[in-house]
Structure formats: structure tokens, C-alpha cells
Amino acid sequence: MVRSFGGRRVVDGVSLTIQPGQVTCLLGPSGCGKSTTLRMIAGVEMQDSGEIYVDGALICDTVFRVPPERREIGLMFQDFALFPHLSVAGNVAYGLSGTKAEKRARVEEMLARVRMERFIDMFPHQLSGGEQQRIALARALAPRPRIMLMDEPFSGLDNRLRDGIRDETLAILKEEDTGVLLVTHEPDEAMRMADEIALMRDGKIVQRGAPYNVYTRPVDRASVAFFSDANRLRATVEGALAMTPFGRFLAPGVPDGTEVDIVFRPQHVKIDFDRAGVGPGPTAADGTAARASVLRARFMGNESLVEFRLDHDGAVIKVTVPGVFLPQAETVMWLRIRRDKCFVFPAKEGM
Ligand SMILES: Nc1ncnc2c1ncn2[C@@H]1O[C@H](COP(=O)(O)OP(=O)(O)OP(=O)(O)O)[C@@H](O)[C@H]1O
Description:
Elements: E1 2-5, E2 8-12, E3 23-27, H1 34-42, E4 52-54, E5 57-60, E6 73-77, H2 88-93, H3 100-113, H4 129-141, E7 147-151, H5 159-176, E8 179-184, H6 187-193, E9 196-201, E10 204-209, H7 211-216, H8 221-227, E11 231-238, E12 241-244, E13 247-250, E14 259-264, E15 269-273, E16 290-299, E17 303-310, E18 316-322, E19 332-337, E20 343-346
Parallel strand pairs: 3-8, 3-9, 6-7, 7-8
Antiparallel strand pairs: 1-2, 4-5, 9-10, 11-12, 11-14, 12-13, 14-20, 15-19, 16-17, 16-19, 17-18
Helix pairs in contact: 3-4, 4-5
Bound molecules: adenosine-5'-triphosphate (ATP).
């Protein structure tokens, strides 16, 4: 699908398949086109080109268009948007067809599913944020949508509530066997919820896969950096090898003279104390140790973040260590990088 605003391609050739019972997370930084993609699928935004199918049936191309309310798509957005003048029962019944008794039965079933039966005659303003969120889920699922579209549905909730509600929501969606497309800019949320992550940047999906694969086999440096802090060493390739203070890295197929970035996460750096100016010897798993001095160290709760300055070229390397580790500034130490956790990417200008 493609959608441009003012000559800028905000969604640029996005193609997605959502499977029943599976949660696909469209993950990316603010403004990359996630919501616009979702809005086109929902039918509240028209694509410039592209087609949308539900269960093999065309629901929208640039000529033909099933209206949003007939797409059998459930929607859930950040602000819940419950109807304030309708009771909980009225909200959940909205969008249901059938006799009064059938509607009532489905409302009761859905409220039981979200453990909100007691609230059936209350009004939205009498409910907490978490309770409203559950009603919004019940309302969206009541008509048995074939796909659920969720746009940052948990971002209005406070942190402590969020994890619990996320897990509950996920369990209910799985029970209902609904296919879900969930938009989020939070990697943690995507890792927690997704069967598949579609990583989006500048209107394009740059990578798709199970959370583990997207995290451990990123396609470029920006993808590494999107999930966590990322360290970078820039090096020039000679004879398919990139020389760094941490030893040589393989750069197969990269022409001589090309610059590459060696990228690694702070949790994959090992620290050793200096022993009379000597560090640990080189190993196949961790390469060569490089001398560095502590710039600053901060306690982060579960871990400590220590920033080092490399003797070699003054580059700053971030290292996380579980628990409390707060060495004094200027302490000399030796750093090694876990070789199996490093990525070698072509260097990009300005990055
Ligand atoms: N109706 C519109 N008119 C003009 N520009 C728009 C319109 N809707 C979206 N845009 C622009 O398209 C880009 C993508 O917006 P979109 O809301 O899809 O991003 P997003 O990835 O969902 O971001 P966020 O997480 O901040 O919601 C933004 O730069 C936005 O300003």
C-alpha cells in the first residue's frame, strides 16, 4: 500500500499479512507511517494504491471500497473512546446485531471474559482507566471481528497497570482466535505481545520476523539501536577484515577501503580489571581486550550503566552490568566484546 501527503510517501509499499490467532506488531518510531497504515486497513483513510483483502475477499482497492463499518474489523485506540452517554452494556452491545436477548447474552459473555460483569450498568466516567480499557476490548471483540486493529492501546495506562492488562488482553485475543495488528513505538511492548514484529521506518517495513529473530538478527544499525543502546566502532576493510582495537572482524565480500560499522549492545561487553597495565589475553569468543577508562557510572535499578572512553581513539563505549557496579571515574579497565553478538554493517553517511 502507498499513501502520500503533500508529495511525501508516508506509507511506501507496505505489504502485511495477518494470521488468525496471531499478533503482528507494527513497530517503529513516531511518524514512520504506522497509524496511517492502520487507518487504511480500517477504511478511515484511503490508500493511493494497493489492495486490502480479508479472508481472501477484496475489501478495498482504489476503485472498490467496503465502508469501515462493514469490514468486520475491530478497532481499539489509545483513548478507548467509549461512548460516555451509554452504559457499559450499551457500549459493548454497540455494533451487535440480532435480537435483544441475543445481544444481551453476548454482552454478558464478553463482560465475563474481561471479568467486568459487575460493571454492566455503570457508565464510563465511573470506571478507572484500566476498567475502561477492558470494556473497550469487550466492545471491540463482541461482534467477532475477523481482525483487530489496535493503535497504541495501552499507552494511556500507568506503568504498573499496563503489564497486567497487556497480558490479559493477549490471553483474551488468543482465546477468541482473532488476528491482531497492533501498532506501537515501544520495543518492549512489541517483544511482549507479538508473534511477529514488522519493523517500520520511513514508510517502509525494513524487517519482519519473530521477536527473537528481529532482535538477534537486525538488518542494520538503526534496527539495533531501535531496541536498545548500540555501540559502534567504525573501521576500514582490508582483505575482507575490519581492524579495530578489539581485534579483527570478518567482513566477507566487502571491498578493500570500504568503511563498516561494528555494532554491539552494551550488555555484550565484558569488563576486566587492569593488572599492572595488562589485560586478559585474546580468545576466539571475545577477541582482543582494549584498554579504556571509566567516564561515568550510573545505577539503573536492575543494572548499572558504565560509560568508558577507549584509549585507542577516545570513542565512548556503553556497558551494562547486572546489579550494582559503580567504578570511580578514570579507573582503567579492559573491555572485550562477545564476538557472536556483534554485527558488521556497511557504514552510512551521517549515521
Ligand atoms: N492527514 C494527514 N495529512 C498530512 N500529513 C499526515 C496526515 N496523516 C499523517 N500525516 C503525516 O504522515 C506521517 C506518518 O504519520 P503516522 O501517524 O502514520 O505515523 P506513526 O508512525 O503512527 O506515528 P505516531 O507513533 O507518532 O502516531 C507523519 O509525518 C504525519 O505528520
